[in-house]
Design goal:
Blueprint lengths: L7 E7 L4 E6 L6 E7 L4 H15 L1 E8 L9 H16 L4 E5 L3 H11 L4 H27 L1
Parallel strand pairs: 1-4, 4-5
Antiparallel strand pairs: 1-2, 2-3
Helix pairs in contact: 1-2, 3-4
Length: 145
């Protein structure tokens, strides 16, 4: 059985207004919400992600890839690919795209269950989505080994 490299992983959920950021523990087992980036535009978002990645000393950046439910790639996925390319240009940390289908729906269901409403809901939805994307990625890596 191959050993999974140890070290933190950064998870990213890029929204239209905010970008949620999550980080794993050192073992790469558990994801936790970290912060929200309020920058807009590909390059400012890429710079902000790079800063967080360096600050947290991550070994990998995982970005949610908004694949359509039918498996096709739309305009959102093209925008994410541009962000991924921009990050690869300015950062030496590997970047991977990970299917994020249904992540926002799951996050909304969790917030409904916890009766989180209004302003508080808007403040946590992106972070929670990033946390779910990252945890799904980490779990998928555990299953491979």
């Amino acid at each position: 059985m191959a050993e999974i490299p140890k070290g933190r992983v950064l998870g990213i959920d890029v929204g239209t207004v905010r970008t949620g950021v999550a980080v794993s523990d050192e073992s790469g087992f558990l994801a936790s919400a970290l912060c929200t980036i309020k920058a807009s535009g590909i390059h400012p978002i890429a710079e902000a992600i790079k800063e967080k990645a360096i600050e947290k000393k991550v070994r990998l950046i995982v970005i949610g890839n908004p694949i359509n439910m039918n498996g096709t790639l739309g305009a959102s996925a093209e925008r994410i690919q541009l962000l991924c390319d921009a990050l690869k240009e300015i950062c030496d940390i590997p970047v991977v795209l990970f299917d994020e289908r249904c992540t926002t729906m799951v996050a909304h269901n969790i917030l409904n269950f916890t009766d989180t409403r209004g302003t508080k809901r808007k403040a946590v939805i992106d972070n929670l989505s990033a946390e779910i994307i990252l945890q799904n990625y980490l779990d998928s890596q555990q299953r491979k080994h």
